[in-house]
Amino acid sequence: MEIKHSQTETKGIFEAIEDGLKVGEMTYSKAGTSKIIIDHTQVDPSQNGKGVGKKLVNAGVAYARENGLKILPLCPFAKKVLTGSEEYQDVLS
What we know:
The protein is an alpha+beta fold and 93 residues long.
């Protein structure tokens, strides 16, 4: 599985690609220069239980760490992943 990241001046998206097909996505909005707000995570039902959503969140965390950003998870799934483990505390807003 490949995770692709693209962004504009105010928004971004991480897409999970499997065999050339998009099987999941996580979107975010930029809040100033130091924070991103994860607002949506969606995974194709055929991929349920394969960890696609968590891989998307982890890609967002890696991006935040590389760029010195904090994450505000408004998406219920991302919030559950990020607040459910000590390993993500450094990026939580």
